[in-house]
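Input.
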Amino acid sequence: MERVPTHGIEVFLTIVREGSMRAAAEALGVGASAVTLQLKALEERLGIELFFRTTRSIELTDAGQVLFDAAAPAHRDLAYAIKKTREMAQSMTGTLRLSLSRGAYIAALAPVLDGFLAEHPGISLDISWNEELVDIIREGFHAGIRMGDVLTQDMIAVRITGPIKSAFFAAPSYLKKNGTPKTPRDLLDHRCVRHRHPTSGALREWWVLEDGQEKRIDPPARMIFDSAAGVIQAARDGHGIGWSMKATMEDQLESGDLQTVLKRHTTDLPPFYIYYPEQNRRVECLRLLVDFLKGQSGRAAQS
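Output.
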């Protein structure tokens, strides 16, 4: 496909509008030599002269007139499109597309969502729950929310929570039948329900606190799920012991469908971050969300 030689079109149109190259240079805020060079380069790329030049005047050639008649409306349309795009970036209304896991929604977004939506009634959220680390640029998301240990390095990342509590858990029926583990080593004698990360394909190691030190363990898996929700459901059904964020099972713990074990051996998980590409930092709706989440995180840390 042949490239369209658009560089220099603005200079050409400004010369026509202002009536001279000197006046065009003043209107564009550049030197007269720069205007002359850009016009010459445009004419060389097109292979034809666009103006008749004399010491006293400058007039369009037939080719210049053809270019002006076609390019002027197109340039106005382009200028309008750029203006509307900038207005959208600076607008306090619009729709933000977010990618986050169910756990991120429960622990990081849901607790503050009512406050944000009430404070910014013109902003809507289009939320995709996904355990995978999706390419938020390619998939058209403005931002994502994930734990700090799985963030993409080439993104701007802002912490929005403190460390996240974890829990080992099982159904009372399972513990009644198989006994309650007292130490992490006891997990070797239990059926464990594990989580396989859908992006990397690796089983997520379990984090334990033993002898005052944080360790990673890899207990044998009786069942494996590609979502934390699957792990919780299987444990609730009595199939074994699971491990995940405590916030994702509060309802089951309160109802008694699940109960925690190894409480003295639980450790915190990394905080949640909202992350986004550099080109989205000027999107006003996103800035408002980031500032709100940062503010809520700061107030939570002080309470």
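The first strand starts at residue 51 and ends at 53.
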